[in-house]
TrEMBL record:
This is YdbS-like PH domain-containing protein. It comes from Psychromicrobium silvestre. Residues 81-158 form the YdbS-like PH domain. Pfam families: bPH_2 (PF03703). InterPro entries: YdbS-like_PH. It comes from the Bacteria.
Length: 169
């Protein structure tokens, strides 16, 4: 489905569906830590360490944390499907976001260098993150969840396109 901010005639390439697995793992670990922290008031109130702390408030804090963490987990598959990129003649388009959508245009001639990084979890899933660095510090041009072979191909292709376009200035 074409969104209102998408340029006309663009065929978006999607990231690997394995990115959802990676995000589930990351969000799961973060959720366990957050829930342990939000459970502390309840533990302290039930054990009598915090006398006078309302038990209903401790339960409410924990319940709110559970609901928020579950909501974040439920959004992951849709967030991953919303990520896309498109290679055009003069620039690279990167799309992300559900509620707050963003389409980023990175001209090849503005690229200073292209970075591919792989963490331990990404390596286990065969994924990589491609980062494009430009002269602008405000540019957050990264494509997370690319298969490693596609990330390596893009790194080489974008680097050579960047050099060719920069030489033409």
């Amino acid at each position: 489905m074409r969104e209102p901010i998408d340029p006309a005639g663009i065929q978006w390439l999607r990231v690997s569906p394995k990115l959802a697995q990676l995000r589930f793992i990351r969000e799961g670990v973060t959720s366990l830590i957050a829930l342990a922290i939000f459970a502390l008031p309840l533990v302290f109130a039930l054990s009598g360490v915090w006398r006078g702390f309302p038990l209903w408030l401790a339960w409410l804090l924990l319940a709110a944390a559970v609901v928020i963490r579950l909501w974040r987990l439920l959004l992951i598959p849709r967030q991953v499907r919303a990520i896309g990129f498109a290679e055009r003649d003069e620039d690279l388009l990167i799309r992300r976001g559900l509620l707050f959508q963003r389409v980023l245009v990175v001209p090849y001639g503005r690229m200073q260098y292209v970075d591919v990084s792989v963490g331990p979890l990404e390596r286990a899933l065969g994924l990589a993150t491609l980062k494009l660095h430009t002269a602008s510090p405000g540019t957050h041009a990264a494509i997370e969840g690319l298969p490693t072979d596609q990330a390596a191909r893009l790194r080489e292709q974008l680097s050579s396109l960047g050099e060719a376009k920069l030489a033409g200035l």
